[in-house]
Specification:
Strand content: 35-45%
CATH superfamily: YVTN repeat-like/Quinoprotein amine dehydrogenase
Helix content: under 10%
Number of domains: 1
Oligomer: single chain
Number of strands: 33
CATH architecture: 7 Propeller
Distance between the termini: 39 Å
Structural class: mainly beta
CATH topology: Methylamine Dehydrogenase, Chain H
Length: 469
Amino acid sequence: MKIKLQTFLGVLFVIGMITSACSPTGAEPAAPADVAAADTASSEPEAAATEIPVAIETLEPTNLVIAPETLGQLRFFWNAEFPGEVSASDTNVGCSPALEPCPLQTNITDYAFSPDGNTLAVGVCEGTTTQDRSKEDSDFYSCSGGSAIILYDSITGEERGRLAPAALPLSLAFHPDGSILAAGLANSDIELWDLLNGEVSNTLSGTPRFVGINSLAFTPDGNLLIYDFVFTFRLSLWDWRSSEPPILIDRARGVGISPDSHSLVTTNFGTQAGDEADAIRIYDLAQLDQFSEIPLDGQLPPYYFSFNPRNGWISGTEADFPAVTNFWNPSTLDLVGSLDWDQEFDETGMLYDLNSGGFTPDGYFVLNRSGELLAPEAQPEATGLDEILWECGFALADMESNQIFFTSHPMIYDECIGPENLFIIGGSEPLVLSPDGRFIAGEDGLGSLRLWGIDASLPAVEPTCYGDC
C-alpha cells in the first residue's frame, strides 16, 4: 500500500494557481474460476454493506490493446466504491498517524490484474482502514471490520470470487501463470493463494516488528517473489518454492524487473558516512553482488520503476507531486529522456499526471493529460466558470521518437473528473495497466476504483501528436 501525501484538493490548487498566472488574457491461461471465501471466525463488528460495481452494457471481449490508434476507443467500463473516512470528518482533520490512529479516506489497499487481463484482484477493508505509527511492534495499518480480496471480471465488473486473508491485504501480485495470487498483509505475512481451489497454499511469516508488506512483484519467470516493508528501506527476494530464507537488499526502495527476469532496478540510498551516494542500481538477479549504478546527482529518488518491453529502457518516477519521470538506457547507463508534469503547459495549457501504469506491450508510456483549453475560440461564449472547457484523457509517450499521442475530449471540469471520463488524479496508488495492455485501473484516493478499456464498437480516431511529429 504505497500511501501518497498528494491530495486531490492540493493538486487542484496548484493547477488553478498556474492557470490563473499563465493563461493568456482574453482566453494466456484461463481466468481463475469462482472462489469461495475462506471460513472465518471473528469477534470484529459486522461490516457495513459495500456498494457493488456499476453494471455496464454487455461488451464483447476484445483483443484490442491500448495504442495510439485505439486511444479514441478507450472508455469507462465500471467502478467499485469502498470509501473510508472523508477528510472533512472530525476524526481525520489534522490527524497525525505518528501520534494517534488516523482513519484513511479509502478502504481500497491495492489492486492487480491477472496475466491475461481478464481478472482484477482488489484488496479492501470492509470496515474503516486506519494508519497508526504511534506504537512499536504493531501493525501500521489495520481494519475495523473484515478484510477481503475481491476478484472482479475486468469487462463487466462482476464479482467472480472473494478471498478472506488473515489480515488487511496491503499489496497483491499474480504469478505469471495466473494460478497463484500473492497477498502481502498488514501483519507482515505473505499468503500465497491457490486460485484453483481458493485456499492458502503457503505463508511466509513476517518480522517480529509488524509493519506490513508495502509491495509485491513476481519475476516474469515466476521463480522469485520480491517485496518490501512499509516505511522501511529493504527489499527481500524470496524463492517461494524452497525452504531457504529470503535474500535481503538493504537501503533500497522501489522495484522494477526486466521482462527476461535477469535484472532488478531499485533506488539505493547512500550511507550516512557518505562513502556511498544515492543512486539507481541495476542488479543481476543471478548474481546480486553484480550491479551497475546510475548516479542521482541530487535528484529526488524515483520509487516507481518499469522496463520498456520494446527497447529495454528503464523509467523511474518520483513519488511526490510535482514529479518527473526519467528514462535510462541500462546498456549505456545514459539518461535518454525525461517527462516533466508541466513541460507542455506554456504552449498548450496541458499538465501531465505521471503516476502511470508504466509501458504498454508496444513500449508506449501511459500518462494522464489535462488542462484548460487556451485558445479563445475553443471556449463557449458564455462566461460562467462551469462553462470553461478542459481537455482531459489518457496519453501515450514514445520516448524514442519524442512523441506524445492523445485524443481530444473537451468537457467542463466537473465532468472531466467524473469516473465515466478518462481522467483520474490524486489517488493513493499508481495507475495499473493490465499485462496484456487492454485495461487501465486507478483509484482516486477516496475509495472509488475505476476501470477503463477498449470498446471495439466505437470508431477509431486518429490521434493528435505533440513533440517531434
